[in-house]
Write a structure and sequence with these properties.
globular
């Protein structure tokens, strides 16, 4: 345990997990706020508490499922492609409709809305954390523990930080691309080939993944802005 903690790679993975949680927990926090906004003041905390408890239980199951899958051939490649897409989507502006979350006017309705929405939206977070943890159970548990307070207490802080410093989103998207590239070259189906034919792939692939995500994401962002300008005119 002490050897693992003292290893430089351990703390690099910890920082990756924290940053992934920060970037990808924002939507979940917004969902909670929207689902509980019509509850009486005295029920809001209960709605958030029980909704998050249910969502976290589902997230644990999702994480264990994702880790099991990532240990099979070809699935790290598929997970890496999904992470690349998630990173690109972070940089693309959302439509005007925003989050289509119905506000509940009773406690159980709000809890149900939070759990269902978090289940649907947590797949990106789970895959990102599982990839960054690299099959380390302690890091995986750390990622789950970190995600809980970020979702419950830090929603407004995260959103304000992203609004004030847009580079946080760009950095987070690039990090997902980095993790995706790193994950893809360690897939069981191609790991030995890369080790023999292209040993530097473990350094090149993460950088290419980050560059790909940021480049395509910013290009799609500019194209979306140009289309909106044309529509306005």
């Amino acid at each position: 345990m002490l050897e693992m903690i003292n290893a430089p790679g351990f703390w690099v993975a910890v920082m990756q997990i924290v940053l992934i949680d920060i970037v990808l927990s924002g939507d979940n926090a917004v969902v909670i706020a929207l689902a509980c906004r019509n509850l009486p003041a005295e029920q809001r905390r209960l709605g958030i508490f029980w909704g998050v408890i249910g969502a976290v239980m589902l997230r644990v199951l999702l994480t264990l499922f994702a880790v099991g899958l990532l240990g099979l051939p070809w699935l790290k490649l598929a997970g890496g492609v999904l992470l690349l897409w998630i990173g690109i989507q972070l940089l693309v502006p959302e439509g005007d409709d925003g989050h289509d979350i119905k506000a509940a006017d009773h406690l159980y309705g709000a809890i149900r809305t939070i759990i269902v929405a978090d289940f649907v939206m947590s797949l990106d977070n789970v895959i990102g954390v599982a990839a960054a943890a690299k099959d380390n159970v302690y890091l995986l548990g750390f990622g789950l523990v970190v995600s809980i307070p970020l979702i419950v207490w830090s929603s407004q802080l995260i959103l304000k930080l992203m609004e004030r410093f847009p580079v946080v989103v760009v950095f987070g998207a690039g990090l997902l691309g980095w993790v995706a590239g790193e994950m893809m070259v360690t897939d069981l189906a191609v790991r030995e080939w890369f080790a023999v034919q292209l040993p530097s792939a473990h350094y090149v692939a993460p950088a290419l993944g980050a560059l790909l995500v940021v480049s395509i994401g910013k290009w799609m962002e500019r194209r979306s802005a140009a289309e909106q300008d044309v529509t306005i005119v």
